[in-house]
Amino acid sequence: MPKREASASMLRFLVLHGPNLNLLGKREQSMYGRVSLKDVNASITQLAKQEGVRVEIRQSNLEGKLVTWIQEARRRFDAIIINPAAYTHTSVAIRDAILGVGVPTIEVHLTNIYRREAFRHHSYIAGVALGQIAGFGPAGYLLALRAAIDHLRNAGSLTAQSLT
Ligand code: DQA
Q1: CB 3.0–4.6 Å: which of 3, 48, 88, 121 could bond 84 by disulfide?
Q2: Is 124 a known active-site residue?
Q3: DSSP annotation of 32
């Protein structure tokens, strides 16, 4: 296969991890597993390379920082993949930022939030997201990246072939 070079026309994705996800691999291992954020990010970067797209990955524990990054994504990124973590259940500000910039956004959760405590069942983000992937651990980020690429390249007509 020919090596894909970076080019101006390459699709650009912003991956955002919310609060406490920097502790992945150490935090509540029975819930979130043993894989570190560094390793999760390495697998996202690897898939991006394979797919010939650009990816930038950031993590913050601060709501305002996440809001600013979402605002700055306008015209700089073609889609956002975000695990807002605890802010999922509290942040009207993150929801408004996503609405405000109009960049297609996919929400990811490592765990199936609907099988957990009732306060996790509501997401402020889901209503403004293209879609949500929850419950598949770190693979959720890769599924989201594939879904976002498919959305942008094929107008969302996912086929089994486009997933392999
Ligand atoms: C989480 C689920 C949230 O409820 C929680 O606050 C997190 C992680 C997940 O990835 O499963 O920090 O977003």
Answers
A1: 88
A2: no
A3: H
Rounded alpha-carbon distances, angstroms, from residue 6 to 43, 99, 148: 19, 29, 19
Closest ligand 1 atom, residue 134 Cα = 11
Q: Which whole number is the average pLDDT over 141-155?
A: 94
| The pLDDT of residue 159 is above 90 | no
Q: Is the CB of 86 under 6 A from ligand 1?
A: yes
**Ligand 1 proximity of 88 Cβ (cutoff 6 Å):** yes
* 25 secondary structure, DSSP code: T
**Amino acid (1-letter code) at residue 3:** K
Question: In b/e form, how buried is each residue of 126-141, taking b as 16+ CB within 10 angstroms?
Answer: eebbbbbbbebebebb
For ligand 1, atom 13: residue with the closest CA: 85
Contact at 8 Å (CB) between 83 and 17? yes
Tell me what percent of the residues of the chain surpass a pLDDT of 70: 90
Confirm or reject: Cβ of 24 under 6 Å from ligand 1. Answer: no
* Residue whose tokens read 């970067």: 45
Annotation marks residue 109 as catalytic: yes
End-to-end CA distance of the chain: 16
Q: What is the DSSP letter of 99?
A: H
